[in-house]
Specification:
The complex is a heterodimer. In chain A, about 30% of the residues lie in helices and about 25% in strands. Chain A has helices spanning about 20-30, 40-50, 60-65, 95-100, 115-125, 140-145, 160-165, 195-200, 205-210; strands spanning about 10-15, 35-40, 55-60, 70-75, 85, 85-90, 105-110, 130-135, 150-155, 170-175, 180, 185, 215. By secondary structure, chain B is an alpha/beta fold. Classes of the chains: A alpha/beta, B alpha/beta.
């Protein structure tokens, strides 16, 4: 007789979102008794996934798209919005779209160092040679303020907040095409994740906000 | 500028023939002391570099470190050195003295306070400074605060002057004025340990009279130690009822009841930042000298809510999720 199968933990990685400790405390009890492990960096999730084959994952749709064998069961959304635009913003008046591709540009790393340039090229239609990656959203502000980069790539919805947090005059250089990037819930085996899917679908908005979304579809 | 021969060679390592690719990993030797923070930084660095790089650690605290290091260098033949802490820099300088060829090897310095001074005489160096920049600290504090603030006060020694000046320049962009009180700039020479608390008290009078909103405590053992904690920080300073931003989490603890906001390096992210410089050198052909020493970017934070209440600092509760630890007895 086969040994009973242990439930794999739910692995969560929302770079730039809430700190892992907060996700653990808010969502951990909601999905109990299943364990939850959250990560701040995609790289850390990448390293752990092989140790939990079959583990369900909540991550950005751009990340999950590159995960072999996973099926998306729930897609996060905010109101009726399902896609996000990204902006290249700058506090450097000398920077133009013509020289942006050769400038140093900061970005929140939600895909890892190999995949991030591919995503950026896809989003903006041109490659950026010098991407400076960070793992926390607030670090982009430091990169800009201390002139370690000429510009930064941010989500369109974060622009007002970033403007409010600095006296540096930030302007938009270019916006991306709409990209799928809200968190999604995915599993290698949909049948194994039915119960968890149900639990996640039933979470109130306040809990889902720790994942940066307001609902699922 | 002439590119270092080893950097060029390492770029060629990935070029295979028509058959199976030759993928020898780039060999890096990390010279570090023991300690949790160093290990976290090294882990962050290794994790970001991935398997294109072989990172071997050498313990800088070994009693016969210089001789052992020579043996390791002979057998491992590193293409780059990662130097954490001033001991590691001293060891690297000894290696450069042994062999001029060693000067060409790229070196990456981090986890070292006042690294600009420490690397003098060392060639081909890039790195990440270890001091937490004022810009990052006060941008973060402003985001957490309901009130705006215009003036930050800081006590510093002459050896920190360049750092304070750089901080002043970046804070000015945010309309924050940095009022500095130099403890030993008057030409009286080295500050005797017994005189530090008295000097801090005098300087505090001046900062208070300039309507300083918040005090920034630097990570400087001469200004913050057991004697000055008793003789100034936990006694005289507290009478002013001003908030202080501290460089270590224990200084913001509920037990000590001193710091309102603690900010210190995120060691793992610091390693990742250093890894990006290494990648630029070995994969994009940048020279370490051109990259230079860049400021640390990512920090960890703690807020002592009880202290904030005591000094009447109104916090934006909606933003507290950004802080790593929120402390309160209530």
């Amino acid at each position: 007789m086969a040994a009973p199968r242990c439930e794999e933990p739910l692995l969560i990685c929302i770079p730039g979102g809430q700190v892992p400790g907060r996700i653990d405390s808010v969502l951990g009890s909601a999905i109990s008794p299943r364990r939850l492990i959250s990560f701040q960096r995609v790289k850390d999730l990448d390293e752990v996934i092989p140790a939990y084959p079959g583990a369900p994952v909540i991550g950005s749709s751009a990340y999950v798209r590159y995960l072999p064998g996973y099926t998306i069961l729930l897609r996060g959304k905010k109101g009726q919005i399902k896609q996000k635009k990204y902006l290249i913003i700058t506090g450097n008046r000398g920077l133009t779209l013509a020289n942006a591709a050769n400038s140093k540009i900061g970005v929140l790393d939600f895909l890892g160092r190999e995949k991030m340039p591919v995503f950026v090229k896809d989003a903006f239609g041109f490659p950026i040679a010098k991407l400076k990656r960070v793992s926390k959203k607030e670090d982009l502000q430091s990169l800009l303020g201390m002139e370690l980069v000429d510009a930064a790539i941010i989500e369109e919805s974060d622009f007002k907040e970033m403007q409010a947090e600095t006296k540096v005059k930030l302007t938009v250089l270019v916006e991306s095409k709409p990209m799928d990037s809200f968190p999604v819930f995915a599993c290698p085996d949909a049948a194994d994740c039915g119960e968890l899917r149900k639990k996640l679908s039933g979470q109130p908005k306040a809990v889902l906000e720790t994942l940066g979304i307001e609902g699922w579809e | 500028m002439k590119k270092p021969a080893l950097a060029i060679l390492s770029g060629l390592i990935f070029l295979g023939g028509m058959g199976a690719p030759v993928c020898a990993a780039i060999r890096l030797l990390a010279i570090t002391p023991n300690g949790e923070a160093f290990m976290q930084a090294l882990e962050g660095l290794k994790s970001d570099l991935g398997d294109k790089y072989e990172v071997r650690r050498f313990d800088a605290a070994l009693p016969d470190a210089a001789d052992s290091l020579r043996n390791v260098v002979r057998t491992f033949t590193p293409q780059g050195l990662i130097l954490m802490d001033s001991k590691a820099i001293v060891l690297a300088k000894a290696l450069e003295k042994d062999s001029a060829a060693f000067a060409h090897i790229p070196k990456f310095v981090t986890m070292t306070l006042k690294a600009e001074g420490a690397i003098q005489g060392l060639e081909n160096v890039a790195g990440i400074k270890f001091e937490v920049p004022a810009y990052t600290i006060f941008i973060n504090l402003r985001i957490l605060s309901r009130r705006d603030f215009r003036k930050v006060g800081v006590f510093y020694r002459q050896s920190f002057s360049a750092f304070v000046e750089e901080s002043r320049k970046f804070l000015a962009k945010e309309n924050i004025d940095l009022a500095g009180e130099c403890m030993d700039c008057g030409g009286e020479g080295k500050l005797p340990p017994g005189a530090v608390s008295g000097k801090l008290r005098e300087s505090m009078e001046r900062l208070a009279s300039q309507r300083t909103d918040v005090i920034w405590m630097l990570a400087d053992n001469t200004l913050v130690n057991e004697t000055t904690l008793k003789g100034f920080w936990l006694t005289h300073f507290k009478e002013y009822g001003l908030p202080v931003v501290v460089p270590l989490p224990n200084l913001a603890s509920l037990e000590l009841n001193l710091g309102m906001f603690g900010v210190w390096p995120d060691y793992r992210q610091l390693g990742m930042q250093a890894a990006q410089q290494i990648i630029q050198v070995f994969e994009s052909g940048e020279t370490p000298g051109k990259l230079g020493l860049e400021p640390l970017v990512s920090v960890q934070t703690v807020i002592n809510l009880d202290m904030a209440q005591k000094v009447k600092w109104d916090l934006n509760k909606d933003k507290l999720y950004r802080v790593n630890s929120v402390l309160t007895r209530k």
